[in-house]
């Protein structure tokens, strides 16, 4: 089962994305992960806190990433390379392929993302106990209202596969022209219909990020 990795990295104090050494090391890490999987990886920089960087990657399975790549010599070398520049805040995996996510795929989409004209929302929905089915049904019945508002392509998401304590989590990525465009959705009548999913969640973490050109 193809899965998507979303890892959140925090830059060390005094390190910024403009740092040439960091840039070179991130590029090296990307090359290693892409060579290992044969898939495309992306870095995104969070807009709410620019010291936070996301890795969005694709793996054949959770086993391939966690039990084969993570303990590998190549990965240990990357950790050593980056240990003074960043740390891992969290790492999750969702049962969705990049083909079903709003990530840039064509050259025009990549150019647009590189210019900062695409913003991605990254939302983690913590579903109430025993309400996965109800959440899924409500989301399915009302996602059209959010999708109809989005102008930059299709949203996409999946269920977290490496659950913590059996807690169900729905991860959703959406493309926008700006953070403000996302906020503007809350001012529409359609928001109340889509917002019915809130009856089935304990909370949500919603952030925004732009492509980091590495």
Overview of this structure, please?
The protein is of the alpha+beta class and 214 residues long. It has two domains: 3-94, Alpha-Beta Plaits; 99-212, Alpha-Beta Plaits (2-Layer Sandwich). Helices cover 35% and strands 30% of the residues. The protein has seven helices and eight strands. It has helices at 20-37, 62-69, 73-82, 107-114, 132-149, 179-185, 189-194, and strands at residues 3-11, 42-46, 52-59, 86-94, 119-127, 156-159, 169-176, 201-212. It has an eight-stranded antiparallel β-sheet. A hairpin with a 5-residue loop joins strand 2 and strand 3. The longest helix has 18 residues, at 20-37. The protein is globular and about 50 Å long. The two termini are 28 Å apart.
